[in-house]
Write a structure and sequence with these properties.
The chain is of the alpha+beta class. It has 1 helix and 4 strands; from the N terminus they run H-E-E-E-E. The chain is elongated and about 65 Å long.
Length: 63
Amino acid sequence: MAQPKRRWSKARTALRRSTWKLEEKGLATCESCGEKVLSHKACPVCGKYNKRQVVEIKEKEQK
């Protein structure tokens, strides 16, 4: 198999890896409670999606 003639420089490696950065997730605000939610998902705080109650949220028990 063919072998590379020489090593890639650090600058060239850094340019190649510059596209690996993390992207922010597309967060939307819940219309009923105002919390940040992933788009097209039910709100984990109030359980509503598209102004309808779709998930029943249980209250946390306090000790």
